[in-house]
């Protein structure tokens, strides 16, 4: 269900004969009844069977990436979504109480967080990709799913749950959900004949096709296909979806994506096929094992099945009890219709609350052009990490792409931004200040940072910027948050420059700047966790202290008199451009006199 699949839109000429029950007419367990029948957000965590402690526990912040489609290895688009989700998770929540966190994790708010990602592994296209690679579908899925996990580790992604739609617990949840929707009277059987795009895994309307019935997305001819399928009565939820968007305009963000969704709904909703008779690689339809469940109806439920702990009973109710509904779905704009139209209608049919927010971000281009293998301009995230490091990759895309809009990658721009911001503004400020502290104070602080700032407007300015950064993180303004933290660094550098003709080595001034660096380390940690750790440990703290930081620790006053700083070492190395000779010596791939940029490596604290 990752970016790349388009709208399936299989129309239906008529509903099945016979009256159907209204969506919420049948009795449901209390936790499976939405707070409002229109699906306006409400929590369904505590159940009749839940313990009192569970009912009174803090409401979790559940955020998700798409479940990425495993027809091919991960690309920069999927990496971008996941980097953004990881930054939001690091800001939003403290350590999850049920899971042991990995290294370099710091969660900055007093909330429980459940960060979900995973892979979507069923469908005709997966079976075809497996056959092309000489593997069976399961082997193919295992290999591609593993490549996602490895890339997330390389990018310092710290997820809580990784769901695969081939997991047994997921299949159990899908079967139960399907049966619930069937009991609501929202699934019926009908014939459908039309033009089918195998790459999109959807039927197409002829009016949207190009010459020779080519798919406008994949530029390949669609094939005639006739099937006897099961359909979901999406049209029945027209008014409920309209009511949802009216009562909760934040259900779809940014606001211009909401306008798109409102337009789709107002144009009229059509029922869509939720099974395939010709696809073997999928979950069998519970009441008809000759058909498999359509991949989107299957994969969307991964957001719920992921909530189950390993080894516990796999049931829809149990999964819901662990934190549904989701607080935030992060997706690419090309799969917005599935998440903002189909998914809430499916949930309403099953008696479940809808997510709080669906956020659709834009696409990435390279040097102003759409990326594609045919153009030879793909951007491989693994290559970027190997060359420049995870912090540089995370910072550039979150700083340079206004979250929600399309963004462009240029290597020249990448190098200039990363060098100027991380190596110069932040890295050099720390390095030269620690150098002066070593020279004048033997690396020991002479004052508390509160005492050093007494009567200084500098502290007020820093605290105002910290407040701005918090507001920006809370509102998913990740680029703005990066800019604000960088402005804190700029203020530090300006302060040092202004003292150039005065007491530049004043012991109090040094404490002011080092306290500023401590605040930067915390405020930037959702974006650049490893860099922030290196900064923090150079300030005399331990890795364990870093791991338990909260956003409230950005409050001025963390440095104490007598605290000993580490030896000054560069925390972020500038990215240098290799000459042709250097490149040829380091890699046989350097040809044609081209220059190749590469970080000379980070010096660990």
TrEMBL record:
InterPro entries: Met-tRNA_synth, Met-tRNA_synth_2, Methionyl/Leucyl_tRNA_Synth, MetRS_core, Rossmann-like_a/b/a_fold, tRNAsynth_Ia_anticodon-bd
Keywords: Aminoacyl-tRNA synthetase, ATP-binding, Ligase, Nucleotide-binding, Protein biosynthesis
Any Gene Ontology CC annotation: mitochondrion
Enzyme class at the top of the EC tree: ligase
E.C. numbers: 6.1.1.10
Any one biological process term the GO annotation gives: methionyl-tRNA aminoacylation
Domain Methionyl/Leucyl tRNA synthetase per the UniProt entry, residue ranges: 209-434
Membrane-crossing residue ranges in chain numbering: none
Catalytic activity: tRNA(Met) + L-methionine + ATP = L-methionyl-tRNA(Met) + AMP + diphosphate
Keyword presence, Coiled coil: no
Cited CDD domains: MetRS_core
Chain spans, region Disordered: 577-605
Pfam family, one: tRNA-synt_1g
Gene Ontology molecular-function annotations: ATP binding; methionine-tRNA ligase activity
Similarity annotation: Belongs to the class-I aminoacyl-tRNA synthetase family.
Protein name: methionine--tRNA ligase
UniProt source species: Miscanthus lutarioriparius
